[in-house]
Amino acid sequence: MRVLGIESTAHTIGVGIAQNREPHILANEKDKYEPEKGGIHPRDASRHHAEKIGSIISRALKKANLKIDDIDAVAVALGPGMGPCLRVGATAARAISSYFGKPLIPVNHAIAHIEIGNLLSGFSDPLVVYISGGNTSIIAYKQKRYRVFGETQDIALGNLIDTFAREAGLAPPYVVNGRHVVELCAERSKEKKLLDLPYIVKGQDVSYGGLLTSSLKMIGKEDLGDVCYSLVEISYSMITEVAERGLAHTRKKEVILTGGVSASKVLTEKLEKMSALHGAKFFSVPPAFAGDNGAMIAWTGLLEYVHGIIIDPSMAYISQRWRVEEVEVVWKE
């Protein structure tokens, strides 16, 4: 059984192909929208996706050495995400489903990040630290659903460091040789001076808005390397603290770090040490599968399809705020 998955929730248009035997991932092709300046404009990103999606589907099929007739079903991320971007993937998936007579599978983008982490780690019941440009959540499975045990009350961690990088004149590009430019800037801090910036943890939740504002006010007043160092140390320590609280609360024995920010070696090291202190196994999803990608949609779609989850193309609506708790996880014991 093979499922083709389409991802288009934000800056990345991706197409993956998964099957229910080894190797589970046959293709993971994608293209990322990179603005020349400023942040991501949903309209411009969606235009990029619309121009690229046809060629990326072809690349995925070629990579897997398959034809569309070899595909059993089509999965698509219907949310959460940016409306214009989501519509590109949804439109393509509905068209393929209708024209070629393939069953259509609705996939929650956040759950796809979790399931690809489960597949690659071999973990069965982890605490999930999901960090990206639009998401910051501590998630765990309980009674047929993934539950959010902690999250940001305002902006996401990825949005925090991207916005700071842009306003400080460090980006774009936001990532150089696999490292975020704010982390590279932090390494230029000679004294590793920790500035007095807000550290806001509220129970299981974090808040990054005040940290961003205060960090921006430090530009020009303090050494930029020290500002970057303080921003990285404080923001990563905040999410590590709430992850530790989630681990103590749920008593899980496994921790997965996923999402675009999981490529950070600094954050990985903090969470790895925290997990070890609690005797928990730790796994950081590799960059090719940690950021937005079609393979995670294809794999989660396959899990759903095996358990009979499909949707009529005419009912495949996008949902920009589709939370993980809304999905009944019928495929997990």
Automatic annotation (TrEMBL):
Keyword Acyltransferase included in the entry's annotation: yes
UniProt xrefs under PROSITE patterns: GLYCOPROTEASE (PS01016)
Domain of life: Archaea
Catalytic activity: L-threonylcarbamoyladenylate + adenosine(37) in tRNA = N(6)-L-threonylcarbamoyladenosine(37) in tRNA + AMP + H(+)
Pfam families: TsaD
Binding site for substrate: Y130, I131, S132, G133, G134, D162, E183, S264
GO molecular function, one term: iron ion binding
The Gcp-like domain, residue ranges: 28-299
First-level EC class: transferase
EC number: 2.3.1.234
GO cellular component, one term: EKC/KEOPS complex
Annotated GO biological process: tRNA threonylcarbamoyladenosine modification
InterPro entries linked: ATPase_NBD (IPR043129), Gcp-like_dom (IPR000905), KAE1/TsaD (IPR017861), Kae1_archaea_euk (IPR034680), Peptidase_M22_CS (IPR017860)
Binding site for Fe cation: H109, H113, Y130, D292
Keywords noted in UniProt: Acyltransferase, Cytoplasm, Iron, Metal-binding, Transferase, tRNA processing
Chief location bin: cytoplasm
Cofactor(s) essential for the protein: Fe(2+)
Subcellular location(s) of the protein: Cytoplasm
Cofactor note: Binds 1 Fe(2+) ion per subunit.
Gene3D superfamilies for the chain: 3.30.420.40
Similarity annotation: Belongs to the KAE1 / TsaD family.
PANTHER family per UniProt: TRNA N6-ADENOSINE THREONYLCARBAMOYLTRANSFERASE (PTHR11735:SF14)
Purpose: Required for the formation of a threonylcarbamoyl group on adenosine at position 37 (t(6)A37) in tRNAs that read codons beginning with adenine. Is probably involved in the transfer of the threonylcarbamoyl moiety of threonylcarbamoyl-AMP (TC-AMP) to the N6 group of A37.
Protein name per its UniProtKB record: tRNA N6-adenosine threonylcarbamoyltransferase
Organism encoding this protein: Fervidicoccus fontis
Taxonomic lineage of the native organism: Archaea, Thermoproteota, Thermoprotei, Fervidicoccales, Fervidicoccaceae
The encoding gene: kae1
